[in-house]
Amino acid sequence: MSVSPISPNPLGVGFLGAGPVTQAIHLPALAGLGHLFSVRAVMDADGGTARSVAARAGARPSTSVQDVLQDESIDVIAVCSPHPFHAEQVIEACLAGKKVVLCEKPFATTVEDATRIAEVCATTGVPVLVGAMHTHDPGWLAFTQAWGETAGSAQHIRCSAVLPPNPRFEDFATEVSHRPPAPTGPTAAADRIRDGVLGLAIHDLPLIRAFLAEPGQIVVHEARSLTPFGYSIIFSSAGQVVELHALMSENWDPHWSFQVFAPTRAATVTFMPSYVQAGPADVVIDEAGRRTQLKAAPHNGYLGEWQHLYDVAHGGAPRYGTAELVADLAFALDVAEQACGAAATTNRAA
């Protein structure tokens, strides 16, 4: 990665959506990249939220998407709105001729919408990055380089995230303004599984897909919703077995790991919890009695994605092309839908 230490003309950034992700992730990350970026506008449907969050960044508030897109001082659009708005806002930002669009995951809710985004990207030449921080984490990138060819190389893959609720980390990072109320009322286990896959597991699903020889041929064998929030999902693809496990509860010992087991070697990549701005993933590779611990760049995946975005805005090639982003989304939706079906079957059996 080649990032200029000093930029005489920082890229102007406009945010669509000013919720906790903007407040507790992106603004703190950009605060350390003032030589590369300048936040120019913060848009939110709630005017009070827009004003409060914009004031922190020295930006102007707005309640209009078009107002931000038409601002010629803005080079980069960060789409941080609720999921159903992602696809249309990404497309509008591309058509507005911005240099780069960063969209929080998932960048669409259907494969059809993701394909439309890819077509617009090809037509306009505007690249789109998805804010899945693990895919841009220096530790993960160092691991894939050290491991070599990933597809089909592991027999067993295990992802486990045991975390406190997000608000705990959000409050450590910043004073969140106008946090959306938590959903209330009874929710079917299948819906909780879908929310878990597309809201939490989606961080690691691109990493898993990279290791599968046949990612389009998965079979979910078991899926359970865990309380108060979480999931346990087991699926396979062409003989490769994957375990997904997550639990959010009032614990104080967060742990987030990605493990791969091959016939002659194994590796563990330990990520920082979401919202924590503290260095890259730790990586350990064990092979034939030899343990290797990788050293990566000191920054985390949040800074990594913004630094990569800066390079892309100046002509660099995106690390992940739109075809790969569409395939990642299709894979995530497949896992979510099959897991919902498996959870429903489990509940009926119980």
UniProtKB/TrEMBL annotation:
Q: Does the keyword Transcription regulation apply?
A: no
Cite the InterPro entries for this sequence. Gfo/Idh/MocA-like_OxRdtase_N, Gfo/Idh/MocA_oxidrdct_glycsds, NAD(P)-bd_dom_sf
Q: Which one Pfam family would you cite for this protein?
A: GFO_IDH_MocA
**Which organism is this protein's natural source?**
Kineosporia babensis
Endoplasmic reticulum keyword on record: no
Gene3D superfamilies xrefs: Dihydrodipicolinate Reductase, domain 2, NAD(P)-binding Rossmann-like Domain
According to the entry, every stretch annotated as the Gfo/Idh/MocA-like oxidoreductase N-terminal domain falls at 12-131
Task: Extract the signal peptide range.
Answer: none
**Keywords on record:** Oxidoreductase
Source species taxonomy: Bacteria, Bacillati, Actinomycetota, Actinomycetes, Kineosporiales
Q: What is this protein called?
A: Gfo/Idh/MocA family oxidoreductase
An annotated Gene Ontology molecular function: oxidoreductase activity
